Amino acid sequence: MNNRKENFYKAYREIHNLMEAQQVLEWDQQVMMPVKGNDQRAGSLSVLAKIAHEKMTSPSMEEVIREFESGADDDWDRANLREAKRFFDRQRKIPSALIAEKSRACAMAQSAWEKAKPASDFQAFLPSLDRVISITREIAALGNPEEPYDFLLDDYELGMTVRELDPLFESLKQRIREMVKKYSRTGSDADKVLGGTVPRDIQEKIGRFFLAEMGLDMEAGRLDVSAHPFTSGTMNDVRLTTRYREDFLPTSLFGVLHEGGHALYEQGLDPEHFRDPAGQACSLGIHESQSRFWENLIGRSRAFWGKYHPMILSETGGAFAGTTAEDFYRAVNSVRASFIRVEADEVTYNLHIILRYEIEKGLIRGEIRTADLPEIWNAKFSDLFGIEPPSHNLGVMQDVHWSVGLIGYFPTYSLGNLYSAQIARAMQKELGGLDELISAGRLTEVKNYMREKVHRHGKLFPPRDLIRMITGSPPSAEPFLEYLSCKYDPLFA
Amino acid sequence: MNNRKENFYKAYREIHNLMEAQQVLEWDQQVMMPVKGNDQRAGSLSVLAKIAHEKMTSPSMEEVIREFESGADDDWDRANLREAKRFFDRQRKIPSALIAEKSRACAMAQSAWEKAKPASDFQAFLPSLDRVISITREIAALGNPEEPYDFLLDDYELGMTVRELDPLFESLKQRIREMVKKYSRTGSDADKVLGGTVPRDIQEKIGRFFLAEMGLDMEAGRLDVSAHPFTSGTMNDVRLTTRYREDFLPTSLFGVLHEGGHALYEQGLDPEHFRDPAGQACSLGIHESQSRFWENLIGRSRAFWGKYHPMILSETGGAFAGTTAEDFYRAVNSVRASFIRVEADEVTYNLHIILRYEIEKGLIRGEIRTADLPEIWNAKFSDLFGIEPPSHNLGVMQDVHWSVGLIGYFPTYSLGNLYSAQIARAMQKELGGLDELISAGRLTEVKNYMREKVHRHGKLFPPRDLIRMITGSPPSAEPFLEYLSCKYDPLFA
């Protein structure tokens, strides 16, 4: 390895190691930390964020990158250089002090959210949330002044813009509102089928069973509990969380399948490159394609329930006595307007995203004040879904994202839905029908396909190119909408 | 606050925040991390150690300290300045690269120890242990060339030297070997009394009960499980661990009392100063005085068993049916040669420390080779205790300390024993007999005394001065030896 190359990789591995430290501290904060520890943790996270940012934007890093331009000599080198430059340029735009301030504000806001959410007390959450929004606005203003939200979007989905998303989401919105009307008739049956009581430890056992079926390596991972499920870490230390409702198994079951999809992606990165700028996951949209694939295209399929319904029946004692696989299949696919995004069905889900996208654009453009969020949320929700949240924890306060500064992030969830349907279509051309794969217990083939086609490439290709390589087409809503019609027309039309 | 003062405190709080991050990562490594995560964690810990060391020894820190010399204007300022200078001088002697190397070597050695210990496979542990020893030797050589071990001692117990410890430990060794002969007759009865089976969750419940009795704030702390019990963190995020043997309640019971004593100390520091150089715990010896006090002077007292035996009987079902408080009191105080330090009685315990002290001196002076450790351990053990460990996990491999680079640390355990007896004598003059306090359920008064006399002062005074302030005497073995005779003469002589 030449010197320029060595310096480059050494510098980035150091930054990677720092970021892994941050991730563990953030995981701990949500999963393990005693309630009074928040101020101290905010201090630690803030100093780590500051140091990482200083290292990434230092003159010596600029020099290291510049030197590497004449030292890069293979595809990975060139991709690493490209990502390093992109990241350097982006980060240098943001002053260190602002990064540290954001980190501190988010730690405080997250804690405030956790305390205020159970009581739906938006006023208690407002001051710290407003601080996060206002810092985020300052950061967004460093990008395209015409459309500050683009700077946030681009951080999660390389190259994505409002100009591209607006028409995509507008058409999705129309088609999906039609589908909601067409399919949402059988709301109340689902509760009867799914409403059996399953103790937490049994739910955990079922969750771990499916993680094993998916091929997740639990010697390189953990499953825990947190208020809002998430996955963090990478490669040999990947941690997912879920939450348990004893009266509603699907919360943990689909939660684990979803986070398990994220976790498989992290374990499937290239072990030689996962610490390098281009070795990490391609984009959040691609990441979400993996989680939504396992949650929906696998977990909400007829074949899945045909195969696993007997196991679930026997593990849960009499909780679901008298139900059939088909009952479950219909119940977990019932379509109806509901308040909680993470528990929404596949059809209405994207409306939840579009709601947040429209609000975030307004917040960042300065058209919406933080204090007005509850009112605006409820009005827009009512317009989209025809119902209004009875309390803020079923409305504007339901997600952790804003409190931790993730603004511009929600749209990647819908992009993930679109990508997952595109990738599934390509996969089935190669491996045969998904239903057959599931019924035959060939889930590791599915995992291996994803590893081969998606995971191991990291950011070697931008998301748009990766999707085109796998599917032969650019990102598109058509396979997703077709997947929905093919699934729901025979069910409920 | 003047500028010089502000710069000083800001710089040190940043370092403190970094060190808290390191502590959480280390705790996680021992308590939560998936087994395959070790390499990645070693990378994170290594970069954090490097950054903290760079910050502590930078020219700008030297400038900050120098400037503060004319900005310090109260007792805390002056103590903070003194500690900062001492630490700066010590750290600057150690090259950054050596610190990072040590951190990485320790992460690897700890992992190797964890894997090799169950099989007593010293050869598997040897290469990584030898690396730690050899780096520690390099570090020790930066201090007093006549007695390199002093540089390690001083890190844990300010100002302590081999010259002072040698005679102290030599006299302890003689007196204690006499006591062992005099008292150790009733070994086998203890197993009969203490050997009932208590499920882990009941043991945990009992442990949490005692932490509450001691006055530990569990909203600012956690209790978990690890291979070797320890306490980490400070103030509002203090975490202790224990381990459970279902066939031997005392392992977790005394473990929790011991670590609970450490945890109370950390929660009792001055909230205004705990992030500053002099605001942290005085020394490891003083720290250990707190843990040993709760474990032994409280937990192994007749009054403790008189008060809590009924609760333990009722919580543990029939496990200890037919036993009396006095049976327990005698059983938990039985004196006999045994292999495991952390389970040793109060009398033999110090021999375990003296063994390690003598070996460490030899390792650091280069008189003992790492490869010869098993042989030397067994020979010395046999000489001191009259028995030889049947396997290395009951011998040279039992402690985590060497694998994590804690060399020069063991002597503080015996100093803690001496200090605890000195402090107890002073406390009883003020609050009345310890037996009365325990019987009357007045443990929070004991906690408050410790908080007032020990915890809140941090490093405001060096350990020797603190002990003199509290007890009117310098550190001394006499109160401890007297405590032992008064307790054991009526029991077993």
Protein model, in words:
The structure is a homodimer of 493-residue chains. By secondary structure, chain A is mainly alpha-helical. Chain A has two domains: 3-142, no CATH class; 162-492, Neurolysin, domain 3 (Orthogonal Bundle). Chain A contains 21 helices and three strands. Chain A has helices at 3-31, 38-56, 59-68, 75-93, 96-116, 122-140, 149-156, 162-183, 187-194, 200-214, 249-267, 284-298, 302-315, 325-331, 346-365, 373-385, 411-431, 434-439, 443-453, 463-471, 478-492, and strands at 221-225, 231-234, 237-242. In chain A, strands 1-3-2 form a three-stranded mixed sheet. In chain A, strand 2 and strand 3 form a beta hairpin. Chains A and B meet through helix 1, helix 2 and strand 3 of A and helix 1, helix 2 and strand 3 of B.
Q: Which chain pair has the greatest contact?
A: A-B, 39 and 40 residues
How many β strands of chain A by DSSP? 3
Largest sheet of chain A: 3 strands, mixed
Which bin fits the share of residues in helices of chain A? 55-70%
Order of helices and strands of chain A: HHHHHHHHHHEEEHHHHHHHHHHH
The CATH level-2 architecture of the largest domain in chain A is identified as Orthogonal Bundle
The overall pLDDT of chain A, averaged over residues, is: 94
Helix/strand-derived class of chain A? mainly alpha
Q: How many discrete structural domains of chain A?
A: 2
DSSP summary: helix tally of chain A: 21
Indicate the CATH class of the largest domain in chain A: Mainly Alpha
The side-by-side strand order for the widest beta sheet of chain A comes to 1-3-2
Question: What spatial form of chain A do the alpha-carbon principal axes imply?
Answer: globular
Cα-to-Cα separation, first versus last residue of chain A: 62 Å
> Radius of gyration of chain A over alpha carbons?
22 Å
